[in-house]
Amino acid sequence: AYTERYLGMPDDQPEAYRVSSPISFVDDADPHRPLLLIHGLADDNVFNELRLNLIFGVMRQYTTNGIYQSLRQIGLHIDDNLQLRVSDRQALQTALSEHYTDVVALMDQVMDSLYTTLGHFTGVNGASGYLDTTVNLVADQISEVNREIAEMNLRLAEREQYLVDQYGAMQAQLQRLAYYQELWAGIYGSVNRYV
Predict the structure, then answer these.
(1) Cβ proximity of 103 and 111 under 8 Å
(2) Where does 111-174 show beta strands of DSSP type E?
(3) Is the pLDDT of residue 192 over 70?
(4) Burial classification of residue 23, based on how many CB atoms lie within 10 Å of its CB (0-12 exposed, 13-18 middle, 19 or more buried)
(5) d(CA 11, CA 13)
(6) What is the mean pLDDT of residues 25-50?
(7) Residue among 186, 49, 36 nearest 121 (CA)
(8) What's the CA gap between 102 and 94, in Å, rounded?
(9) Which of 4, 38, 77, 143 is most buried, judging by how many CB atoms fall within 10 Å of its CB?
(10) From CA 195, how far away is CA 178, in angstroms rounded?
(11) 3-state DSSP call for residue 191?
């Protein structure tokens, strides 16, 4: 949505998408030079760490018992839209037909890596994940707010009772004053007589 707002649709502006994507320049990058990644900290639409870990899990080298150590060797890569695509159909067909068990071993390693990465966020593999932690924190905050509401309601009830008691005392005082007025009027006559 954000990208389309500024660049237009990918089908209409493929060159704009190609030159604005850092993935386009990965093949030309010096593998011995550090890579600086910058990402906004206020972006609540993307779990940046999860995305980077998943990309790393797909792109990295694996140690397997077979001849393949990366998905790129069997013709798979991540495109500019961060989608896994077949980049070399012939390499993939050859790998599947001639070294199927090696491809399965590589894919098992990749999937185990992705499953572990997702587990850190979802908690599916037994660990308390990011989402579980967040849900627990929100539940704690809700409990704290409910406790504060209960305390406030108690204070309000106490204040209400205090005000009711004050109102009752004022009503009683007004009744006493009215009684004294009648008493004094009976003793000394009407107060309003001379006014």
Answers:
(1) no
(2) none
(3) no
(4) middle
(5) 6
(6) 61
(7) 49
(8) 12
(9) 77
(10) 19
(11) helix
CB 85 within 8 Å of CB 76: yes
Burial of 67 (0-12, 13-18, 19+ CB in 10 A): middle
Distance CA 53, CA 79 (A): 16
Task: Please provide residue 78's backbone torsions phi and psi, each rounded to the nearest 5 degrees.
Answer: -100, 125
Residue 4, token pair as written in the block: 């389309």
- Whole-angstrom Cα distance, residue 56 to residue 60? 6
Residue 124: CB atoms within 10 Å: 14
Q: Which two tokens stand for residue 55?
A: 């990309």
Decide: 62 and 106 in contact? Cβ < 8 Å.
Answer: yes
Residues 146, 150, 156, 159: is their CA dihedral positive or negative?
negative
Amino acid of residue 10: P
What is the tens place of the pLDDT at every residue in 171-191? Answer: 999 999 999 988 888 887 765
Which 8-state DSSP code applies to residue 47?
-
Other C-beta atoms lying within 10 Å of the C-beta of residue 57: 20
Question: Burial, 91: exposed, middle or buried (Cβ in 10 Å; 0-12, 13-18, 19+)?
Answer: middle
Proportion of the chain above pLDDT 90, given as a percent: 30
Give, in degrees to the nearest 5, the angle at Cα 54 between 17 and 25: 35
pLDDT at 97 over 60: yes
Q: Would you say 125 and 119 are in contact if contact means Cβ atoms under 8 Å apart?
A: yes
